[in-house]
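REQUEST FORM: STRUCTURE PREDICTION
Request ID: SP-0412
Submitted by: Lab K.M.
Chain count: 1
Length (residues): 427
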Amino acid sequence: MISSVDDHLSALYRLRRFGIKLGLASISRLMRGLGNPQDRFSSIHIAGTNGKGSIAAFLSSVLSHGGYKVGLYTSPHLVRFNERIQINGSPISNKDVARVAEVVRRIYTQGEPPTFFECATAMAFHYFASQRVDWAVIETGMGGQYDATNVLRPEVTIISNISMEHQEYLGNTLAKIAREKAGIIKKGAGVVTGARQKNILQVIERAAAEKGSPLYRLGKEIRVRKDNGETFTYLGMNHQWPEIKIGLIGDHQVANAALALGALELLLEKGLHLTDEAIYSGLVATRWPGRLEVFSKEPFILLDGAHNPSAVRTLKKFLENGTISRRLTMVVGILEDKAWKPMLRELSSVADRMILTRPQYERAADPHELASFVRHLKQDPVVIPHLPDAVSFALKEASTSDAVCITGSLYTVGDARACLENTHAPC
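STATUS: Completed
RESULT:
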């Protein structure tokens, strides 16, 4: 009989062999077997290409500071599976991972096995219901309409932004991808979006109209104004909050915080009790590891899980804005199914040196293949396939005045973070 958490997680990871299957039949069967736990808590549902996790982190922090018991479900994890399922900022314990995995396993052994993500989602929803959370902030895994998380009936939905991704599953045009993301919109639940492209907005507007869901857009009904210094002013539908400071760095995080505030505004209109103090303190206390995270200042180590061209452009903008005026070494590992050519083109334009590696994940791209492309960009990269060796080499070669940025995938950042945390020094 499976008993230890390691055995449970090994069984869970073996479900990855079933790949990605978009659809709600399997997760719905699991939910029925568990007594539909997703109906026993209020929820906020978040889709989009980039920023989902940061928005979820802002919301979880604010609601927690407001005195609510808040579940947070995100993916992927950086170092430990437990990070995916949190309550008020604390990851689920190993004991509870084993307990909920056993409950879910009893159900899926009776039929066709679920995917890894379906099983993890069922575990999260069962755990949140058993712990009687007041709110659950839920990030989609991929897409929206056929994502396993879309069994929810949320109070409000958020679509952060949309760019080309997962084309083999979501479609090969922005409009098709937008239709998938807009599939999380539910009847009567307000929608907040950061999407700005006209063709994408038309898709979201149509979906919202069909569901009778009011739509609020960043830059229209929701606006932000940068103040002097490190704060900004939020200008919403019925609320204004001046001099807001947030705990995450990067200009793009202002937009993510604004989307979180837009969702909170809608909930306030529905009767949510939340003080301004909770909003301000929750935003400034927000932490989201692996996203423009300064892991160390001496040596300077920046971790960023940018995994698509849009996210890489955000990272590049951050680096070019004078934030890092040092000789920059980039340690890069990318998954083979990502748009790695435009990603490498952007990264190579700001890197003084590139070290190409691979995370311990079956979909990781061959760093030698990445290197062949980078050489066409007039760069001479170093190839070190074993990621801990790549990080160690980068830190040993960097002087005290240099910077090291580890990027390309959250899996790359997660592996590097585990290495750095274990050694507190070069790996």
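NOTES: The chain has a mean pLDDT of 92.
Reviewed by: T.R.
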